[in-house]
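Recall the central idea of this unit: under ordinary conditions, the amino acid sequence of a chain determines the structure it adopts. In this exercise we apply that idea directly, starting from the sequence alone.
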Amino acid sequence: MITNSGVIERYGHLLDLPDYTEPITLNEGATPLIPVHRLSEELGGGFQLFVKFEGLNPTGSFKDRGMTAAISEAYGRDAKAVICASTGNTAASAAAYASRAGLRSIVLIPEGKVAAGKLAGAVAYGAQVVQIQGSFDDALSLVVDISSKHPIALVNSLNPYRLEGQKTSAFEICDTLGRSPDILCLPVGNAGNITAYWMGFRQYNEIQSSGLPQILGVQAEGAAPLVLGHPVDHPETVATAIRIGRPARGEQALQAAEESGGQIIALSDNDILSMQRRLAQEGIWVEPASAAGLAGLASEIESGGLDPMGKQIVAVCTGHGLKDPDIITSRMESPTIISSDINALESLIFS
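Accordingly, the structure predicted from this sequence is:
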């Protein structure tokens, strides 16, 4: 029987982690690479399209890959507490892995800007949750300051071990396909993930000659500092996971896009939500931000900016739809109510 043992056990020999690191794992990683044939046909066909569904990690998002590394390092050096700023997914992941290690966790979130499913996760895992009157960027500034003054481990993506864990998804993609995809598309918020993927593909190419993908990063129009070329003081988008105006890894993200021959673009919330619905028709329910990469791919193909013919394309979907169910429930119609008899049901179904 093949079992998932976590990314440090499987890829630790490729990760730059200190010798004192003590693995804290929830068996993260090994997420599926799902073919999405119908959507590729809708976009013109002639290419292979896959979704790397990171929403099937233990806490429902890609953050678990980096968090296992960050918490394992902190635990190994006898840290007693960890802290992060978060739009939701980092908070839940940090709280879960800290709890697993027996560490105290403190998470700062922007007031009123976090999806209920993510906030609930952080609370359930035992974090001390603090809402601040400000943006994610304000929260990040605070946790950086306090972690520099006190022995509290910072586990945001500024922590280099986060990127070491997150790059394992690139390894998995290459192992599954037998090489790098031709194109990788993914959402961009704080920009740690796009940076980590590029690190991973470059490293694997040096070892396995697996090739390098062209990267398409996608931001929401209301939170697109890397596209606009300047910080956004008040970022706004329904895609809460990428509602960030000052990406901590912005320079590295732009470098990754440039070195890969790719780009970072911005799309409207309507485009992102439309792709979320289209993905659900493939049986894949993701939170809004997770659909941004595929929405960008569709936009580029439909506008003629990208020719997908004959290519293998992977879209990274970073979080599960259960992370932000309000996006769906707030817009749905009330279920039809019928009496409890077969005639009423037949009438409803077959009329």
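The domain at 63-159 is CATH 3.40.50.1100 (Rossmann fold).
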